[in-house]
Design goal:
By secondary structure, the chain is of the alpha+beta class. Helices cover about 55% and strands about 20% of the residues. Strands 1-2-3 form a three-stranded mixed beta sheet.
């Protein structure tokens, strides 16, 4: 990961965006500490998806297990059908 000072990042934004488009990640620093990361949009979307899946798995772990017979499932599917 490349690091760049915030003041320099302002003047080289177009170049930094080209780097990110090629898949690189850039850390923008202020006084030697990272304050932001420029990451490819695809990587961020993937991270968001992975976080959502993990939240779902955690919630699902707390769900009560219920089993239905095939007849019950079919009856529920057809409930409310008009004759």
């Amino acid at each position: 990961m490349r690091e760049i000072q915030a003041t320099e990042a302002k003047t080289r934004l177009a170049e930094l965006l080209r780097m990110v488009e090629r898949g690189e990640t850039v850390a923008i620093t202020r006084h030697g500490k990272a304050v932001a990361h420029l990451v490819p949009a695809v990587a961020q979307a993937r991270a968001n998806r992975d976080e959502a899946v993990e939240r779902f798995r955690q919630r699902r772990a707390g769900w009560e297990r219920v089993s239905f017979s095939a007849e019950e499932i079919l009856a529920a599917r057809h409930e409310g059908d008009r004759l």
